[in-house]
Amino acid sequence: MVNAQNNFKATQIKFERVEKAYSEKWETLRKFVEAGGYGDQFSMVINAYKTESKLEIWLKNNSAKTYSLFRTYDFCAHSGTIGPKVFEGDGQTPEGFYYVNVFNPMSNFHLSLGVNYPNTVDYARTGKDRKPGSDIYIHGNCVTVGCIPLTDEKIKEVYVLGVEARNAGQEKIPVNIYPFKMTDGNMKKYIAQFPAQANFWKSLQAGYLAFEKNKTQPSVSEVKGKYVVK
């Protein structure tokens, strides 16, 4: 099993852009990883906040129980407003609980990490007569129609950390995309502006608060078109 995992990094690093990202970023990143006590086998959670334009990387040693904040990156472009993605072409960035399902070392946007949008909650929202859209990525460059762009330099770091986590055995790296930091104050403020999102955002807030409290990725299931956080 470990050998199969180690092959993931070996396969990725054969690609020129990944090899370059490692040569430019990994030595410095590894020093911070070691200083943070994460060791050389770690797991990763990505939390993104649309209003704040922040993408957080949380890490934990594979023998540890809780995550701690490792790095925060700024989005470098935006599209749409707060509120979930509903259909193809609406320009919206999704909101919800996802995971990395693609490592693309030959992206049109330097390097990219694909997110498993649409999930069953997204399909339920879109309905039968419309397409939900697809191809949602965290990527380089600085343009977007619904994705999360970080610049080439920043995506190199995030991508390398993702490869390391995947290589250490993490099959699914969570990507939690929130409309904003889901404090009670923010909920009150933004629900007043977007009342139609109240119930959906409350389901997201349950995940946000669980992570804030426990510093572990909550168990989230998709039940009849809704998120259920345990």
Automatic annotation (TrEMBL):
<keyword id="KW-0961">Cell wall biogenesis/degradation</keyword>
<dbReference type="InterPro" id="IPR038063">
    <property type="entry name" value="Transpep_catalytic_dom"/>
</dbReference>
<feature type="active site" description="Proton donor/acceptor">
    <location>
        <position position="139"/>
    </location>
</feature>
<keyword id="KW-0573">Peptidoglycan synthesis</keyword>
<protein>
    <submittedName>
        <fullName>Murein L,D-transpeptidase</fullName>
    </submittedName>
</protein>
<comment type="pathway">
    <text>Cell wall biogenesis; peptidoglycan biosynthesis.</text>
</comment>
<dbReference type="Pfam" id="PF03734">
    <property type="entry name" value="YkuD"/>
</dbReference>
<dbReference type="InterPro" id="IPR005490">
    <property type="entry name" value="LD_TPept_cat_dom"/>
</dbReference>
<keyword id="KW-0133">Cell shape</keyword>
<feature type="domain" description="L,D-TPase catalytic">
    <location>
        <begin position="44"/>
        <end position="178"/>
    </location>
</feature>
<keyword id="KW-0808">Transferase</keyword>
<comment type="similarity">
    <text>Belongs to the YkuD family.</text>
</comment>
<feature type="active site" description="Nucleophile">
    <location>
        <position position="147"/>
    </location>
</feature>
